[in-house]
Design goal:
This protein is α/β, with parallel strands linked by helices. It is built from seven helices and six strands. The two termini are 22 Å apart.
């Protein structure tokens, strides 16, 4: 299967194949979501370390290398590479959205200058690249990204990062509601488990975005 027939949910079984993608360089950006130091810290608890093992392996062996290669290809062609990260303005986090204040795994207190809130060194922004700081899941809702994309004349966003079923999905849906054409790069994203990752891709594919591999997007864009 290729991107036109893969990752189809119940709603799109038997639907016509989408048209070929046309992604002009001056109307397209790449956006990497939340690949931050906090998410690459190995848990001290052995049980948690084992539970999260597949995620860390996917990040190290697949997501981060593929994302860096795609970023470099975009840069080489002169296409803008952008970044988003979760970070609060106040050390006590009172500016965070409700979802980041709730107890549980999603509770995040990441002051903007803390080491945990920084983008991982392997994917660190190059000089002059835009970095959007958010206290929401969606990179569109919590920043001025909407205005920036509009001012730049951007119609297409190539999306990578974590987590597929959370901040990626929220950003995809927000961009789709703004009539932006979104491409999610499957092998440049990860969720806590592969099951969550692939299920979310089925949910958002075709209605909110197109799901492609990095190989497919590079071929389409001649990168």
């Amino acid at each position: 299967m290729n991107w036109k027939t893969a990752y189809r949910s119940f709603y799109y079984q038997g639907a016509p194949e989408p048209e070929d993608l046309v992604l002009p360089y001056d109307e397209t950006v790449m956006l990497s979501i939340d690949v931050q130091n906090i998410y690459m810290k190995i848990p001290e608890d052995p049980a948690e370390r084992e539970r999260w093992g597949p995620f860390f392996r996917r990040m190290r062996e697949t997501v981060m290398p593929n994302t860096r290669a795609l970023q470099d290809a975009f840069r080489y062609k002169g296409i803008d590479v952008m970044h988003a990260r979760i970070a609060c303005l106040f050390d006590d986090g009172r500016d965070r959205s409700l979802s980041q204040k709730k107890p549980g795994w999603n509770f995040l207190l990441l002051p903007k200058d803390s080491g945990d809130s920084q983008i991982v060194p392997e994917l660190s922004p190059k000089e002059g690249e835009a970095v959007f700081t958010k206290t929401t899941d969606s990179a569109l809702t919590g920043t001025n990204l909407r205005l920036v994309l509009h001012n730049m004349g951007i119609n297409n966003v190539v999306l990578t990062g974590v987590f597929t079923d959370q901040c990626i999905s929220s950003t995809v849906r927000s961009l789709a509601d703004e009539s932006v054409n979104v491409i999610v790069v499957e092998d440049c994203c990860a969720a806590g488990t592969d099951e969550l990752h692939y299920k979310e891709l089925e949910i958002i594919n075709m209605i909110y975005c197109h799901v492609l591999s990095s190989k497919e997007i590079r071929k389409i864009m001649n990168l």
